[in-house]
Amino acid sequence: MPDLKLIAFDAEDLAVIAAHLQDAVLRVEDMAYIKADRRFAIVANRFDWAQSAKPPANGERFVRRRAGARIEHVTGAKVSGIDLTNKDQVLSLLTLTFEPREAPYGTITLTFAGGGAVRLDVECIEAALSDLGAAWETRSKPEHAGD
């Protein structure tokens, strides 16, 4: 499967990126707000939901892929429920959402399992997701209540 490369300029596009990042795992040290560049970035191991939708062939298992995501035009970042000093803490990303304010301003929130969140004030939506090439099989598929 070719590497995924997505870009978002509106809430609908951002929802597509959020779907691909659902259940991505990362460590606290794998995310950064680069204030001087007005950018927030993460490197995560995303669960390949598109691959998991295909019928398994030849004992194939599920796949995780190393991916990078960035959000541009960030004017501020707030963290809640995450200990930023615990660099090795593993986080599971549940979703990204956009809450509009006076157009084109708004807030993008990264919501993590266990109640952690990162809220990013943005001037507009500009986000990207790219696979970084590494992929590996995993035996387990993330499960959610109601699955």
Structural summary, described in words:
The protein has about 150 residues and is mainly β. It has one domain. The strands form two sheets. The protein has a five-stranded antiparallel beta sheet with strand order 1-10-5-4-3. A five-stranded antiparallel beta sheet has the order 2-7-8-9-6. Strand 3 and strand 4 form a beta hairpin. The longest helix is centred in the first third of the chain and has 11 residues. The radius of gyration is 15 Å and the shape is globular.
What proportion strand? Answer: over 45%
Largest sheet: 5 strands, antiparallel
Gyration radius from CA atoms, angstroms: 15 Å
Taking pLDDT < 50 over at least 5 consecutive residues as the criterion, the unreliable ranges are none
SSE pattern: EHEEEHEEEEEE
Total of helices: 2
List how many beta strands DSSP finds.
10
